[in-house]
Design goal:
heterodimer, A: mainly beta, 5 strands, globular, B: 262 residues, alpha/beta, eight-stranded parallel beta sheet, 8 helices, 10 strands, 16% strand
Chain lengths: 66, 262
Amino acid sequence: MNIVVNGTSNIVNEEISLKQFIEKHCPNPERVIAEVNEHIVKRADWDRQLLKENDKLELITFVGGG
Amino acid sequence: MDNKKSENLIIAGKNFSSRFLLGTGKFGNKNDLALAIKASNAEIVTVALRRIDLQRHEENILEYIPPDVTLLVNTSGARNATEAVRIARIAREAGYGTWIKVEVINDSKYLMPDNEETIKAVDILTREGFVTLPYIYPDLYAARKLVAVGAPSVMPLGSLIGTNKGLKTKEFIRILIEEIEVPVIVDAGLGAPSHAAEAMEMGADAVLVNTAVATAGNPVLMAKAFAQAVEAGRNAFLSALPVQQDSTQARASSPLTGFLYQ
């Protein structure tokens, strides 16, 4: 299935939870903030959130800024 | 006591002994950031939110910021009120952001803040319990509206972001200082400690600096220099600067009655 992550299409073959996806792709999952289809998903709910075809994920973190 | 002359900077009931706010962008070496915060005694620092780059390992900026420092999450990247509100909510979800520097910019050339959208965002965010520090073009009406919708501070720009040109908007910031009761924090464009001192001498409540520190040859020492300038400027304001003379004629500070020739 196709999942759009931070604006880029990703093909995911297996059924996967948001938690599994983040742990697989982000080097520091503990500082990731996740939105699915413009709704924030709380960290505690990551494992219950299964990714679906055409889901739009935003994976966000803190960076330096003025 | 007149809030403008209080010893501490007070924003939304929280006391800060430092009147120097530091931005965390553009530091070539993140260790310099940690040392700059320490050297300047900054108690409020700004950070931003960005999409994670899945292709490369990114450093965690928060590791370089002491836990007792108040994080001010900016809404940089927001082009309208809706996007600013969305960024603020994300920050809060992450467990950090109830203090938000509301920054709405829809102009990539001048990076000028959109005051109207900023007012809308502050209105919504205040009702959701956020502490908002709006970044604005120094306009009296906009500042009044922001205070009316709950902003506990306003942050007018000194000059365009990243230009280091200093207090180009000085006379307009002066009006805000005179008319707006909440703290006025001069943000953007301050390029030298003397600019910060100038802002503080005329009664600004605090300044925020990023580029001038982060891109200095020695960012740690520059952070300290800015903090010292802020303190000097503050003390000058509190002691009421003497009146500048228009005349080109000098006025002696020592008695001129000559005793040598008597």
